[in-house]
Amino acid sequence: xxxxxxxxxxxxxxxxxxxxxxxxxxxxxxxxxxxxxxxxxxxxxxxxxxxxxxxxxxxxxxxxxxxxxxxxxxxxxxxxxxxxxxxxxxxxxxxxxxxxxxxxxxxxxxxxxxxxxxxxxxxxxxxxxxxxxxxxxxxxxxxxxxxxxxxxxxxxxxxxxxxxxxxxxxxxxxxxxxxxxxxxxxxxxxxxxxxxxxxxxxxxxxxxxxxxxxxxxxxxxxxxxxxxxxxxxxxxxxxxxxxxxxxxxxxxxxxxxxxxxxxxxxxxxxxxxxxx
Length: 276
Hints:
Elements (H helix, E strand, L loop, with lengths): L2 E3 L4 E4 L4 E4 L4 H10 L2 E7 L10 H7 L3 E6 L6 H19 L4 E3 L6 E3 L9 H8 L10 H10 L1 H19 L4 H25 L16 H9 L8 H11 L2 H4 L16 H4 L1 H5 L3
Parallel strand pairs: 1-4, 1-6, 2-7, 4-5
Antiparallel strand pairs: 2-3
């Protein structure tokens, strides 16, 4: 189970005791529904951020979304809002250690009180690099896609966890984060270039236009993965060695049913979910 504490576009200054709110980003909600199993929308009894969007009713009916009220005896403005977000995350994390994160970023929650990797923000950034459902995709179609592909989703998460832990366990975290994201970006850009050359479909992403099917590239361009070598490690090694581009023209962009990759769940968002 993977859970996410969510919010509308919300900029909080604890130092200035100030809140700026600009409503819910509907494509965020679609992406959160696709990649995360449980969502919690926090509020508090002193300063309410309130509201919602119509799909929230469907998410609540499917026991995916919970609206949570954090009761406070004192506080106002930015401090009360920040405390409600952080307390919601801490409460869920206590029940399911290692399973929860906070949706942070320009289109969701930002605060001057957040520290590096608060609420596993690096993990959230990794997930943001994956394809997202088209804005017009009905929420029930997203839920159906996810139910049918639960094993693929878990495989994808194992891959994301691996990349996240490479950064989190590094002594020099800023350097590790830059290195992992850059190598991942290069690998994905090379994949997308090959997809275009092969007249394959494009992918819509929350951050940039990307393509996937890196495992095949690794096997073709760098040799069969050595025993004990994890997919994420091999991916970044191959990207650094520059083997991705040369390998891609000789592989299929989309995995077949008997040749899944850790990113199949994300890869097929475009072909199997975003159909008209």
